[in-house]
Amino acid sequence: MFVCGFPGRPRRRTPARPLATSSSVGGARADRAHGRRLARRAAAAANDSRREGLQRCGAESLSRAASSSRRPRLPSVRLAMIPDELFEKIRRLEVRTRGRVESVFRGEYQSAFKGRGIEFAEVRPYQVGDDIRNIDWNVSARMDDTYVKVYEEEREQTVMLCVDVSGSENFGSQGKLKREVAAEICAVIAFSAVQNNDTVGLLLFSDETERFVRPGSGRRHVLRCIRELFTAEPESIGTDIGGALRRVLRILQRRSILVLVSDFFDAGYDSVLRAAGQRHDTIGIELQDPREEELPPVGLVDLTDAETGETVTVDPRDPAARAAIEAAAQARRERTREILRRAGVGHVIVRTDGDYLEPLIAFFRRRARRG
């Protein structure tokens, strides 16, 4: 018998294997079947573990949409444990708000909120036009040339969205509830913040704290905040702005951007709002609906307070009744405006029958001009 091999390399002899008997063959087959069962169990356990991990993160992957020759495909993240209809609503909101952020709002946000300060970045050779106050004399002496210190803005900030989800926020006469408008406003601000390397937190309140999301960054975190805005079912229908602000002041340890979104149907929060305005860069976004101050002349109407349940019957055709409703609404709004002004808090009015982005941009531009 001839054996082929490489020249000069000794042949390694393999010991002869014993012939398998029928019993040993059956045992080997059983071992292989048992091994396959163990492998399937391990794979199933791994899949379960991955699935649980995705649910804990609050998101899971979706199959990508069909490609289009005109429009690039957008990456999508499926929020776990929510109905398909709500997921589509969140996805449409993300596409709409991110588009507005990229095209319009991001620059306004960055100009309005310039960061906490500046920090040292590096030392480089002096160039014509550099501020001589930044010359580093020690380095210049060692290098026998003129060097200046370079500073950069410390960009990262925390944006805390404090959103009213009381009973009155579930009202809207123009096709959108005040709560839905609040969700869109928060989405625009949150996406602008994370694109500027800021972190975003969320606190939902009625007359108690309903939900709290710790500040975080990234698209998934913003989607989680949006999901909470849409899915939160408040345990109470009252409003306690002061209690919510006290909770926020305990949470935020350093100066942050505090955005308070509410219709301000409350009283007794003046002092704590003033404290928030002193410690943080605070903005009050007041949500208004036209039917809260003017009713159509349609005959007798039962008006129910969404937070107390009290019901009264009015006749909008009666000029005296209409005047009383309008006067009460105007007085409440004047009181809110005065409270925010005295607290040194920015004030933005957003109506459900208009575009929420225009008043936000106008406000941020005024801030940027003031420096």
From TrEMBL:
In what residue span(s) does the DUF58 domain sit? Answer: 122-334
Q: Which InterPro entries match?
A: DUF58, vWFA_dom_sf
Q: Which domain of life is it from?
A: Bacteria
Which portions of the sequence form the region Disordered? 1-68
Q: What is this protein called?
A: DUF58 domain-containing protein
